[in-house]
Amino acid sequence: MNRDFLIIERYLQDALHARTLHVAFDMGVIDQLAEYGPSTPQQLFHNRSCDAAGADFLTKVLTAAGVLQTDHSLIDLTAEFRTAFKYRDLLLTKLQFSELVAADFFTRLPQLLSSSEECMSTSRLFELFDYSRCHNVTPQNCLHASRWMKLTTMLTRYEAPVCCERFAFAEHQRMLDLGGNSGEFALQICRRNPALQVTVADLPVVCHVGVRHVAQFSEAHRIHFHPLNFINDPLPAGHDLITCKSVLHDWPDDLTEVIIRKCFHALPENGRLLILERRLWDAEKAAIAYGSLPVLLFFRSYRSPDFYTTLLNAVGFSELNVQIIPMEVPFMLITAVARKSIKSPSGR
């Protein structure tokens, strides 16, 4: 499995190292070294917004972080970081995302620990992910949504191919991607499965922004957007595969059951449901990296595979399969088949 991009996680572990790396990117230091190679301190920091002592401090911090090396007074990127630099887009996204929510941990931790309601009312992340602004398509709402969609799109760009290695999308003709966001998940799957047609279902503003995102790619004619409310609106029919990628954790247990039950009824006989979610992980056993702060804010929402398998069985799905995918945090890929000839245990 190609997970070479996980090399960037080394540079997202320590908060000081990661924050200093982000500043170095913003100053243009990293890109200059990547393009032009070894430089003297005078060349590297000329016209930068730091004095000699600041430049020396930044250099030493990033040397300790494994980003820089110095040889005969020449500063350069390490060989390992040059490999990580291939994933510059993902690395910068995670640095930006983590900086955005760092205050939620470092200044609002008491509120975060107090309750879910207190956390949501004070968190910068939940302010950014304001779904209440995703119903009415206005220029202001589209601009607001595009900010957080840019972040989630980049994460999906690297997560989707890992999913493709674990599931045979080619066995399906029409896929419904619930909560499909910008369409990036659909795009990555279509790129690897040229016969597949995908409907992306999400809130109206998200769909509006998503149409613009996929329009620039040749797969756009196979990706269609369908605005809807998961709970109140019927799911569009005619799909033999429904996917829920990083969406069900946004919903409480009772409404998650409603969504999964609607998926069961929307699928044809032998249709499949695919759930891709970060799984609940043990903070006592797993080190928490600075780069995982945005994910960590949802610690109340992540679930174990047993939650989903129990619910899927109760709804009437069969042939359940669970795969755990090691990433920066563990993912779970759960698939299930809708056997309509077998009555649902709940009788509904």
For this entry, give a set of tags.
elongated; Arc Repressor Mutant, subunit A; 2 domains; 348 residues; Rossmann fold; 45% helix; alpha/beta; seven-stranded mixed sheet
**Architecture of the largest domain, CATH level 2?**
3-Layer(aba) Sandwich
Number of E-state strands: 9
Structural class given helices, strands, pairing? alpha/beta
Name the CATH class of the largest domain. Answer: Alpha Beta
Q: What is the global morphology?
A: elongated
Radius of gyration: 22 Å
What is the H/E string?
HHHHEEHHHHHHEHEHEEHEHHEE
Number of individual domains: 2
Q: Which stretches of 5+ consecutive residues score pLDDT under 50?
A: none
The CATH homologous superfamily name of the largest domain equals: Vaccinia Virus protein VP39
SS field, number of helical segments: 15
In round numbers, the mean pLDDT is: 91
Distance between the termini: 40 Å
Range of strand content: 15-25%
Q: What share of the residues lie within helices?
A: 40-55%
Q: At the third CATH level, what is the topology name of the largest domain? A: Rossmann fold
**Biggest sheet descriptor:** 7 strands, mixed
Strand order within the widest beta sheet:
5-4-3-6-7-9-8
